[in-house]
Amino acid sequence: MTRVGIPRALLYYQYFPMWKAFFESLGAEVIVSDTTSKEILAGGSARVVAETCLPTKVFCGHVISLVGKCDYVFIPSIRSIEENVYNCSKFLGLPDLVKAVIPECPPILDVDIDVNKGKAELFAAIYQVGKRITWNPLKVKRASEEAWRVHQEYQSLMRRQGLTPPEAIEKLTGVAHETASGRVDKQREVVDLGVKVALVGHPYNIFDEYVNHRVLHRLRTLGVRVVSTEMAAIEDLNKGVERLVGGPYWTYENDVVGAGGHYLHSDVDGVISVVAFGCGPDSVMLDVVQRHSKGLTDKPLMMLTIDEHSGEAGLVTRVEAFVDMLVRHRRRADRAAALEAQRKAVETEV
Question: 324-341: buried (b, 16+ CB within 10 Å) or exposed (e) per residue?
């Protein structure tokens, strides 16, 4: 049986169930790399120049970890998934980058995804991948249909049940997302602070627990209710983009501008953005979100910038201080609401 390796990085959190369904429908076995670790990050960082962004370094490390474990590695080149909307260059050249810096990498299954070329070109590109496993075009077509069905179910599951991508992936495919670095969290009772925080950013920055020092887990441990881009309706994200910039330019702009524009006008108490240092598109998108947030005095925004040198202590301190501020703000608002309700009750009696 053909073994296809999928790195647990970059677009893994957005498309893994779809990719898994596609290759398994063709009769292949899917091999997933382990969660990010110190060794994986160090291995990827050693292969590329220092200026390369953190997510790409992590991706290269995951590819290296798959060497010797699979027959192929699946690395798509996603140019555009919407008409006249463009992707970051790191996604466009990812297969070529891996070939250049990881010569021992197994053969790469690369596919050029660009909806601007039309549906016929899109299926032809998908068939070029599928024929490496089967020559039957009908089987490839059925596999692509099943993959799309699973992807729709995956998106719906996260929005209906408020699940994060790792939680939805485990529920839908059975592929577990282990705690970063193999650390086991002690069971303890968590007190709900009555505070809700939105995590804004790309899934590979928010849900890779090693690179962001488990920011999601730390917020939940503090008693904070957390929402993310995946839990918002696509219509709300599109409205968020329209509110801030009028229309999308970058692929996955919903992750940042859409989510920021939506959650800054929702019932959350605060917004935390997680961005990788040196990311050009994100620096532009987050600047738009930050400028918009300055006019909203009741909706604090904190920006967390991460790279391979980010210290855990500093991040934890900032997160805890931000949550403390939100708790105080929530208590003041609750007291003011209670006093207003009491005043209205007295006026009614009079």
Answer: eebbebbeeeeeeeeeee
In whole angstroms, give the CA distance from residue 325 to residue 14. Answer: 32
Token pair 């192929």 is at which residue?
Answer: 72
Question: Could you give the CA distance from residue 55 to residue 12 in angstroms, rounded to a whole number?
Answer: 12
Q: What is the pTM of this model?
A: 0.89
What tokens does 122 get?
């899109």
Q: Check: CB of residue 335 under 8 Å from CB of residue 324.
A: no
Give domain 181-339's CATH architecture: 3-Layer(aba) Sandwich (3.40)
Given strand 224-228, what is the order of strands in its sheet?
A: 224-228, 195-200, 270-276, 301-306
Burial 154-165 (b: 16+ CB within 10 A, else e): bbebbeeeebbb
Looking at the DSSP assignment, which residues form a beta bridge with residue 5? 31, 73
Check pLDDT > 90 for residue 33: yes
Residues of the chain with CATH 3.40.50: 3-160, 181-339
Q: Is the pLDDT of residue 186 over 50?
A: no
DSSP 8-state symbol, 253: G
